[in-house]
Write a structure and sequence with these properties.
With 351 residues, the chain is α/β, with parallel strands linked by helices. 27% of the residues lie in helices and 26% in strands. The chain is globular, with a radius of gyration of 20 Å. The structure holds zinc ion (ZN) (2 copies).
């Protein structure tokens, strides 16, 4: 089968490899669509970041490894111990592979598993014709959800978790900083969770327009004027209850501090690879909190429900559909060279 195999930094090879075999408790999935994630771009350009450099303690995997984790497809083969999934089911997966026996797994906090692995990073992923995964990761796609929509279940689960971690209450004002794929999903998840006003702050014009289209009450360009003041004017001077920092950058974090009010929550959704400076004195006086969120635990059913009844729209976020053979030239390299042109690129192995 065709697959995109990561060998090292800037060494991703689209090659022919043998189809994977199904173990007793595993499901083989024929991939329909797989989205390119920001983390795929990072691994391609500057990896390994999450890809294990020595055999992973749980999966035994390290490079070369197949990338791709935001996908949908059809179950085409199941192992003899598989009970819940049948051949022909339309499926997506929760990408966490966990040990099931550590203290966090025993409490159901799988994203904290001491031996956590992620499909597409420490287990062969879905930039391939077929992928094989444990049955417990597999979720059926509701009828109303297309394969394209279902390939957003993974990033939407991240967004739903971000909203949960924010402890957002019905009617709260929220600000989303960064209207990339995750920011646009957080925006919609916050609305679905009952946020009052949701504002988006984003430097790229096309993404601001998309944020508006997807439900932002107003959008702001961080390069134009004082966004803190703008938000204050729209909230009786109180500013936002919650800010979602979906960039992972000092300036975006500074904006989060400025746009939030007293007792506000700042959720660090973006992956800040460099240390950030935190104005503790300002946070202290206003009892602001900062929290983080990583991946998801049990947010997939909510994500699939939001897709099914269209509380969350993803089609407008699809800016290109490409074939697996073109993953490097028309996918990863394009996203690096023209970051403003794309929101989500979906990849199909075709056939
Ligand atoms: Zn992702
Ligand atoms: Zn565990």
């Amino acid at each position: 089968m065709k697959a995109a195999v990561w060998y090292g930094k800037e060494d991703l090879r689209i090659t022919d490899i043998p189809e994977p075999n199904v173990a007793k408790d595993q499901v083989k999935i024929r991939v329909r669509w797989c989205g390119i994630c920001g983390s795929d771009v990072h691994e391609y350009r500057e990896g390994p970041l999450i890809i294990p450099q020595k055999p992973h303690p749980l999966t035994g995997k390290s490079a070369p490894i197949i990338l791709g984790h935001e996908f949908s497809g059809d179950a085409v083969e199941v192992g003899p111990h598989v009970k819940r999934i049948r051949v022909g089911d339309r499926v997506t997966i929760n990408c966490l592979i966990y040990c099931g026996s550590c203290v966090y797994c025993r409490d159901g906090e799988y994203n904290m598993c001491l031996r956590l692995a992620t499909v597409g990073l420490a287990w062969d992923g879905a930039f391939a014709e077929y992928v094989v995964v444990p049955e417990y990761t597999v979720l059926k796609i509701p009828d109303q959800v297309t394969y394209e929509m279902a390939s957003f279940a993974e990033p939407l689960a991240v967004a739903v978790r971000a909203v949960k971690r924010s402890r957002l209450k019905v009617g709260d004002t929220a600000v989303v900083i960064g209207a990339g794929p995750i920011g646009l999903l957080v925006l919609q998840a916050a609305k679905a969770a009952g946020a009052g006003q949701v504002f988006a702050i984003e430097p790229i014009k096309g993404r601001r327009e998309l944020a508006k289209q997807l439900g932002a009450n107003e959008v702001f360009d961080p390069g134009q004027g004082d966004v803190g003041k703008e938000i204050a004017e729209r909230t009786d001077g109180l500013r936002a209850n919650v800010a979602f920092e979906c960039v992972g950058h000092q300036s975006a974090f500074d904006t989060a501090v400025r746009v939030t009010g007293r007792r506000a929550m700042i959720v660090m959704v973006g992956m800040a690879l460099k240390p950030l400076e935190v104005p503790f004195f300002r946070l202290w006086g206003h009892e602001k909190e900062i929290t983080t969120c990583t991946g998801y635990v049990d947010e997939y059913p909510a994500a699939l429900a939001f897709l099914a009844d269209r509380r969350v729209l993803v089609e407008p976020m699809i800016t290109a559909r490409i074939r697996l053979e073109d993953l490097i030239e028309k996918g990863l390299k394009e996203m690096i060279q023209n970051p403003g042109r794309y929101v989500k690129i979906l990849v199909t192995p075709g056939g």
